[in-house]
Write a structure and sequence with these properties.
It comes from Pseudonocardia benzenivorans. This is Universal stress protein family protein. InterPro entries: Rossmann-like_a/b/a_fold. The protein has five helices and seven strands, in the order E-H-E-E-E-H-E-H-E-H-H-E. By secondary structure, the protein is of the alpha/beta class. It has one domain (27-128, 138-155): 3-Layer(aba) Sandwich (Rossmann fold). A five-stranded parallel β-sheet has the order 5-2-1-6-7, sandwiched between helices. Strands 3-4 form a two-stranded antiparallel sheet. Strand 1 (5-10), helix 1 and strand 2 form a beta-alpha-beta unit. The longest helix has 21 residues, at 72-92. It is globular, with a radius of gyration of 15 Å.
Length: 158
C-alpha cells in the first residue's frame, strides 16, 4: 500500500518563489505527496511591493514583476492567478494538487481547510522577516499549537 503525504501549503505573494518550489520538489522526491494550496485572500493594503521569481523544475520557470495591487479586487485576481499557475504547474509535473482562496486571516483559512480535509503537515511560505506580517504574528507556531501538525516555515530571500 502506497502512503501519500498530504501537505497543506499556505502562501500568497510567495507562492511562486523558488524557496517554496524547492520545498515542494523535495517532498515529491521523498515519496508520494499531494498538495492542497491555500491562498489567504490578503487585502491590497497589506501587500508588500517586492519582486517575485520562481521556477519549479521540471516545471516551466515563472517570473513575475510585482508592483502590488491597487485594489482589493486586483489583489484577489492576482492571488487567484498565482494559485491557478502553481496548481497547473504541479499537475503538469504529475503531482496531485488542488486549492482555493481562503479568508484573509491565515489561521481562519487554515481552520476552514482542516475542517474539510486531513493533512499530515502544513507548509507556510512567507515574505522575509522584515516584511512578513505572518512572522510578526508568529503564525507558524500558532498553527502548530492550534492544529497539532508539524509546520515547516519557508522564508523567501527576496
Amino acid at each position: 500500500m502506497v502512503v501519500v503525504r498530504r501537505c497543506l501549503v499556505v502562501a500568497n505573494q510567495t507562492l511562486e518563489d523558488l524557496e517554496l518550489q524547492e520545498e515542494l520538489r523535495k517532498r515529491v522526491t521523498e515519496g508520494p505527496s499531494s498538495f492542497y494550496v491555500l491562498v489567504p485572500n490578503t487585502r491590497a493594503a497589506h501587500y508588500h511591493v517586492v519582486p517575485a521569481a520562481g521556477g519549479m523544475v521540471p516545471m516551466p520557470t515563472i517570473v513575475t514583476g510585482y508592483g502590488g495591487p491597487e485594489s482589493d479586487e486586483e489583489a484577489t485576481e492576482q492571488a487567484r492567478h498565482r494559485l491557478e499557475r502553481i496548481l497547473a504547474a504541479l499537475t503538469a509535473a504529475g503531482v496531485k494538487a488542488e486549492g482555493h482562496l481562503g479568508s484573509a486571516n491565515p489561521l481562519e483559512a487554515m481552520d476552514n481547510a482542516l475542517a474539510e480535509r486531513q493533512f499530515d503537515e502544513i507548509i507556510v511560505a512567507t515574505l522575509p522577516r522584515r516584511f512578513s506580517r505572518w512572522l510578526k504574528a508568529d503564525l507558524p507556531h500558532q498553527a502548530e499549537r492550534r492544529f497539532g501538525l508539524p509546520v515547516t516555515t519557508i522564508v523567501t530571500k527576496r
